Amino acid sequence: MDVVEVPTRARAWALACAVFVVAAVAQRLYWIAGGRWGYTACDRTDLVDPAGGCGADQVVALPFWSGWGAVGVGVALVVVLVCTVRLPGRWATAGSWAAAALLLVVAFPLHLVFEVPAALAGRPSDWRDLGARLALVVGGALFAGLANASGPRRGPAAVGYRPVPRWTRRWAYVAVTLPVVGWAVPHGLWVLGVPVGISARELNDIEQNLSTATGLAITLVPPLAGLLVLGLVQRWGQEFPLWVPGLRGRQVPRRLAVIPAGVVALTLVTYGVLSVAVLVGHLLAGDTRWSDVWDGWAVTATLLVFLGWGVSLAVTTTGYALATSADTSMTDLAGSGRP
């Protein structure tokens, strides 16, 4: 059997991934040994102290996925690294992509989109949780870089602007509209004190816990971020605009658009599916009543908004990837543009 040597450029990525995994596993072992620096219990206790980890120092029994479960995941990531370096090939590269997707989904970048602006606006935030999520995003990016560097070399991407199929544009407009109609509008009304689709108690909680600046940040950031989807169907998503210093007119790297958009789409769909599953489970168990769902119909609808947002973004990203592929002819694009 021929031995395939991993490209030299992939070794640097593998080393960076190894540093990330070792640091992550060392931190979990530190928690297992009784240390609590960097650990947060804000999702498990009733204490309201995000800056102090909500009583993390008082936690005796570490949850499985925060301790040995995370160590097991770290061992699996080490196996992926070893296979990528020692046995490079299609399957090893697929493992690196899977590791990147897992880390990014667990990080749930959408949470950062909400919480970071709120924290900057002055809302008390759980820095331990935000730091852990940012670390997972970095780890996901490192494994994505490893997968890209160790994979087979492909032909060049298409050069010049290539119009996307008509169906791609339609899905892009859906992906832009959903966070505006399904998120910004109801949250804006709640910040203004209008109880649309939520109970009076929930509205009272919002008024007491959210400052005006925080409410505006939470309301406006997601739809503004969603406008980036338009880059997948416009010229500036394939060629840097003339006003960008040093890059004006140059081709936008295909992966620079496809990978982030694909990760966000996967995260949104995962969050939507899991949230709906949790809601259904609570209904079947009797923990949540149908009357509660109807009283808070706007909150329930938000779960479907995330799911639809993710699906529409995934379809739009697929159309962009097809349009910018050097293997796709202009005739194919013209044909796929018919309604």
TrEMBL record:
UniProtKB keywords: Membrane, Transmembrane, Transmembrane helix
Keyword flag Transmembrane: yes
Spans through the membrane: 12-31, 65-85, 97-114, 134-151, 171-193, 213-233, 256-285, 297-323
Protein name from the UniProt record: DUF4328 domain-containing protein
Native source species: Micromonospora ureilytica
